Amino acid sequence: MSSAATVHSLWTTAAEIPDKIPAPHIEYGQLAPTLIVFGAALVGILLEAFLPRRARYHAQLLLSLVGLAAAFAAVIGLAAGGYATDKARIAAMGAVAVDGPALFLQGAILLVSLVAVFTFAERRLDPRAHGKRVDSFAAQAGAVPGGAAEQAAVKAGFTTTEVFPILLFAVGGMLVFPAANDLLTLFVALEVFSLPLYVLCALARRQRLLSQESAVKYFLLGAFSSAFLLFGVALLYGYAGTVTYSGIAEVVDGTVRNVTPALAGTMGNDALLLIGSAMVLVGLLFKVGAVPFHMWTPDVYQGAPTPVTGFMAAATKVAAFGALLRLLYVVLPGMRWDWRPVMWGVAIVTMLAGAIVAVTQTDVKRMLAYSSIAHAGFILAGVLAATPDGVSSVLFYLAAYSFVTLGAFAVVTLVRDAGGEATHLSKWAGLGRRSPLTAAVFAVFLLAFAGIPLTSGFSGKFAVFQAAAGGGAGELVVVGVIASAIAAFFYIRVIVLMFFSEPRPEGPTVAVPSPLTMTAIALGVAVTVALGVAPQYFLDLAGQAGVFVR
Amino acid sequence: MENLIGLLIAAPLLGAAVLLCGGRRLDRVGHWIGCVLAGASFVIGVVLFAHMLALGGEERTLREHLFSWVPVGGFQADVAFQLDQLSMTFVLLITGVGTLIHVYSTGYMEHDERRRRFFGYLNLFLAAMLLLVLADNYLLLYVGWEGVGLASYLLIGFWQHKPSAATAAKKAFIVNRVGDMGLSIAIMLMFTTFGTFAFGPVLASTDRASEGVLTAIGLTLLLGACGKSAQVPLQSWLGDAMEGPTPVSALIHAATMVTAGVYLITRSGAIFNASPDAQLVVVVVGAVTLLFGAIVGCAKDDIKKALAGSTMSQIGYMILAAGLGPIGYAFAIMHLVTHGFFKAGLFLGAGSVMHGMNDEVDMRKYGGLRTYMPITFVTFGLGYLAIIGFPGLSGFFSKDKIIEAAFAKGGTEGWILGGVALLGAAITAYYMTRVMIMTFFGEKRWQPDAEGNEPHPHESPKSMTIPMIVLAFGSVFAGGLFSLNEAFVKWLEPVTSFEHGHSPLSAGAVTGATVAVMVIGVALAWAQYGRRPVPVAAPRGSLLTRAARRDLLQDDFNHVVLVRGGEHLTRSLVYLDHTVVDGVVNGTAASVGGLSGRLRKVQNGYARSYAVSMFGGAAVLIAATLLMRAV
């Protein structure tokens, strides 16, 4: 067919297009969780625009809580309706999967976000600015740090209540990310949740320059990784002629039914597949914080406002690992002999580097950042099991880990001195003598990070290591245990520091938070202990939710 | 009826719980709660005994299965009780003597401010001891075994403000650990050999195990028995245990707990019967301890320590008898019961003397007390006659039978064992006469103590004398009753089995010899202590006397061989730990720390270098993926 004929045929068929475009079929019910969150975010923007300033905080807080709770209820409703198991399906014209892993991870993200909203809304920790209660966020984000505009905004008692709708947008993106069933949806979801996070990172009330620096770094590197992902998507489209997961998987498996003639030339070219999938993986590994794509983590965790760090560390990891699982288990199972060895290397390097570098950290937020890198490695070990057990153990680990992380960062917001949060570890010396309860709670979280029995950290780590060993990745388990031993050193060191050193005379004090943060911490402890003492119910739940729809 | 067995243990256990958790508000009534619950246990014991007598000889084993304790695959450990004639004997002895001593303690401990706690511990001891003798398997027995060890530890160290008491408690506990280790190994061996812990299946299937295994089980059981019953070589703790309050010495360290070893060997008779080597070691241990304790008893001036030596020696008799097999088991238990009566009586008498003498224990500072405390004198005197084997009293019957059985062992062995037993009887007569004379006869030798308080010897209150009188009745009549028509032997026969020994000497000749050596012993003691005044300061004495005063150098031996050796071992292990183990650990930690310090330099804060790292990482990842396909 000559090119002129092609053009001609395009022209001639154009007239018929209005009849042939199928009306998009959207299953609103099955997408309800995501739609509710996005709807709430939009309403939040309207509130921000039309409500008087003093009413915004309470309205936004209420809206966020109600929106997230309603979305969670929708997830529960879908799961109870069988969508997690036998009625699992692909909705929205093949763009979004509604299945066990998606619903499990969405539920986890929503719960974590709900708790994160509590820490976002905390207004009793920072001293009052000109008689007004303020939260951890900048008075006016657009004002130059230290400039006159900022001072005026502080004096007027402004607060950035936009954080709530921004948070909701991020949550909405995160809900789509692990459920995305084609590569474009994956990319859009990635951007939808990344952009709000970049903004949130820049909003710290104190040390604004550090905060803005972290946001810029995160944005630049995030854009860089998105480019990799997008390029990978393009190559995969070139390989398979489609961006849907099932379509690509069919081509990989060689079971494709009808080939588009225009794509016959490139289709099935393994170089495209290998390079494309590797680039998509790079994008996802960046989000989970795996070595060597982890370098943003410590800087961003340290610079971002601590409630944002907690939310980001907990929820991003859940969403990103969800997407990674779906990609590896739905799209690429046919080429697991190609990606497994490479991912093995990534997992080993991630576990070891995270644990080893954390040993010499002196800032508690940076230490937790490296700890999150090590944990990404442990979770990767579970991902690499490539068995149903691997999926369910990773789901369980993510749920357990996210609550521990959120709780730990919530405790970090409490320990303060004149300059705001006292994150240098030397200031934490003797904290157990001064504030035994706070120190004990933090110790519980540290023990959970270290994977000590009777905490959720142990149950989770045991589950992923068991799955990894069962899936033929015994060597990974050995490395994981060694990394755990190294990691235990720096967790326990903090406990020793808190309980067995003399308090410093000008050490930080523990601020008394409002019931909001207390609820967040209490929930963190409760989930940590409950999943540690009686994990079986949740393991079973994760086990039932461990099957992907294709 | 079987349901009552659990109640036997539950009553004192409840007492212990109430008294130990009840707090100060029970201080005023605590001791009566203790007595009532001990008495309740005794009453239940009597009811069960009556029930048992109504049954036929072979049906007298009552069982109660309480619950399954550790059901894991083939590993079945049950909390189940077995009350047969042997257990019944112990139950009556423990609860009977135990109740009497509870009553006695209400008087003896009247002025102690921690009296409630003391009764709590006593009740705890009763519960544990009953568990020990009622268990139907070795694992549960072990629980009771450790329980009595704990109670013993707590009660020896009851006056913990005295460093000597605290040390004695620790010593008893540690020495007992050695024995307990033996018992636990025995139990493990049994499980691996027979696949069960229960008495019935284990003892019925000894023919399934080789003799070597049975000997090993027997010897480790014996090690356990040696620890609990203060037999050589684990005898060193009993003398020091006299630091505990005297009622404790009477109940735990004379009448009941220290006889647990005899119970263990008798209960495991089937194992020892099948292993002559183990039996031989048992009789040797018994014979050696018999002489060891008797010699130590001769040299001690502390009345309680003299009696402790005597206890050791008498238990030596029991172990010897138990080692003789079916010709001896019944007599071992019979001597155990009669000894329970007279030795408890003697200790209570000693406590009564101390009570009247400002807690003085040195017999050289007694003398002539018979007129001051007549009831104590008479009851102690009857106990004395019983223990030396005065014809017609309890000790005579039971000891005579053991000596007879020892000769009946046959061959050279029989002659040696019989000779040792006879010699022991002579020494027993000697040291007990010595105690008797130094305490109750002769001139009064007491002096004001350091604060100038002149002791005013007086008779003890009724709460103390009545238990002594009851025990004195037991000391006089129990042996005769038991021997009437061989009643005791027939009662125990279904459990322990019984054979008549064939002694090379006629029964009359043995009895004659026993009485003769007893007379010689008494006469010697009288010649030494009765005819001339007893010096208040102990004379230097012969080499043997000096050695005996130091418990035949047992502590010196332990110190040189075990403590020093142990110290050397720990020191070398600590050295190894510091240099090798810590070296490796510290070296690893240092290298991880160094690596960490170097790696963190990569994190330089520049977004451009992070981007380079990502780019490099992506390149490696893609290259590796392609390489994997190429390979």
TrEMBL record, chain A:
<keyword id="KW-0520">NAD</keyword>
<dbReference type="InterPro" id="IPR010096">
    <property type="entry name" value="NADH-Q_OxRdtase_suN/2"/>
</dbReference>
<feature type="transmembrane region" description="Helical">
    <location>
        <begin position="512"/>
        <end position="534"/>
    </location>
</feature>
<keyword id="KW-0812">Transmembrane</keyword>
<comment type="similarity">
    <text>Belongs to the complex I subunit 2 family.</text>
</comment>
<feature type="transmembrane region" description="Helical">
    <location>
        <begin position="394"/>
        <end position="415"/>
    </location>
</feature>
<feature type="transmembrane region" description="Helical">
    <location>
        <begin position="31"/>
        <end position="50"/>
    </location>
</feature>
<feature type="transmembrane region" description="Helical">
    <location>
        <begin position="308"/>
        <end position="329"/>
    </location>
</feature>
<feature type="domain" description="NADH:quinone oxidoreductase/Mrp antiporter transmembrane">
    <location>
        <begin position="180"/>
        <end position="486"/>
    </location>
</feature>
<protein>
    <recommendedName>
        <fullName>NADH-quinone oxidoreductase subunit N</fullName>
        <ecNumber>7.1.1.-</ecNumber>
    </recommendedName>
</protein>
<keyword id="KW-0813">Transport</keyword>
<comment type="function">
    <text>NDH-1 shuttles electrons from NADH, via FMN and iron-sulfur (Fe-S) centers, to quinones in the respiratory chain. The immediate electron acceptor for the enzyme in this species is believed to be a menaquinone. Couples the redox reaction to proton translocation (for every two electrons transferred, four hydrogen ions are translocated across the cytoplasmic membrane), and thus conserves the redox energy in a proton gradient.</text>
</comment>
<keyword id="KW-1278">Translocase</keyword>
<feature type="transmembrane region" description="Helical">
    <location>
        <begin position="62"/>
        <end position="83"/>
    </location>
</feature>
<feature type="transmembrane region" description="Helical">
    <location>
        <begin position="216"/>
        <end position="240"/>
    </location>
</feature>
<feature type="transmembrane region" description="Helical">
    <location>
        <begin position="163"/>
        <end position="180"/>
    </location>
</feature>
<dbReference type="InterPro" id="IPR001750">
    <property type="entry name" value="ND/Mrp_TM"/>
</dbReference>
<feature type="transmembrane region" description="Helical">
    <location>
        <begin position="341"/>
        <end position="360"/>
    </location>
</feature>
<keyword id="KW-1003">Cell membrane</keyword>
<keyword id="KW-1133">Transmembrane helix</keyword>
<feature type="transmembrane region" description="Helical">
    <location>
        <begin position="476"/>
        <end position="500"/>
    </location>
</feature>
<dbReference type="Pfam" id="PF00361">
    <property type="entry name" value="Proton_antipo_M"/>
</dbReference>
From TrEMBL, chain B:
<dbReference type="InterPro" id="IPR018393">
    <property type="entry name" value="NADHpl_OxRdtase_5_subgr"/>
</dbReference>
<feature type="transmembrane region" description="Helical">
    <location>
        <begin position="610"/>
        <end position="628"/>
    </location>
</feature>
<feature type="transmembrane region" description="Helical">
    <location>
        <begin position="369"/>
        <end position="394"/>
    </location>
</feature>
<keyword id="KW-0812">Transmembrane</keyword>
<feature type="transmembrane region" description="Helical">
    <location>
        <begin position="414"/>
        <end position="432"/>
    </location>
</feature>
<protein>
    <submittedName>
        <fullName>NADH-quinone oxidoreductase subunit L</fullName>
    </submittedName>
</protein>
<feature type="transmembrane region" description="Helical">
    <location>
        <begin position="315"/>
        <end position="334"/>
    </location>
</feature>
<feature type="domain" description="NADH-Ubiquinone oxidoreductase (complex I) chain 5 N-terminal">
    <location>
        <begin position="69"/>
        <end position="119"/>
    </location>
</feature>
<keyword id="KW-1133">Transmembrane helix</keyword>
<feature type="transmembrane region" description="Helical">
    <location>
        <begin position="505"/>
        <end position="527"/>
    </location>
</feature>
<dbReference type="InterPro" id="IPR001750">
    <property type="entry name" value="ND/Mrp_TM"/>
</dbReference>
<feature type="domain" description="NADH:quinone oxidoreductase/Mrp antiporter transmembrane">
    <location>
        <begin position="135"/>
        <end position="419"/>
    </location>
</feature>
<dbReference type="InterPro" id="IPR003945">
    <property type="entry name" value="NU5C-like"/>
</dbReference>
<feature type="transmembrane region" description="Helical">
    <location>
        <begin position="248"/>
        <end position="266"/>
    </location>
</feature>
<feature type="transmembrane region" description="Helical">
    <location>
        <begin position="31"/>
        <end position="54"/>
    </location>
</feature>
<feature type="transmembrane region" description="Helical">
    <location>
        <begin position="278"/>
        <end position="299"/>
    </location>
</feature>
<feature type="transmembrane region" description="Helical">
    <location>
        <begin position="466"/>
        <end position="485"/>
    </location>
</feature>
<feature type="transmembrane region" description="Helical">
    <location>
        <begin position="89"/>
        <end position="106"/>
    </location>
</feature>
<keyword id="KW-0472">Membrane</keyword>
<dbReference type="Pfam" id="PF00662">
    <property type="entry name" value="Proton_antipo_N"/>
</dbReference>
<feature type="transmembrane region" description="Helical">
    <location>
        <begin position="209"/>
        <end position="227"/>
    </location>
</feature>
<feature type="transmembrane region" description="Helical">
    <location>
        <begin position="118"/>
        <end position="135"/>
    </location>
</feature>
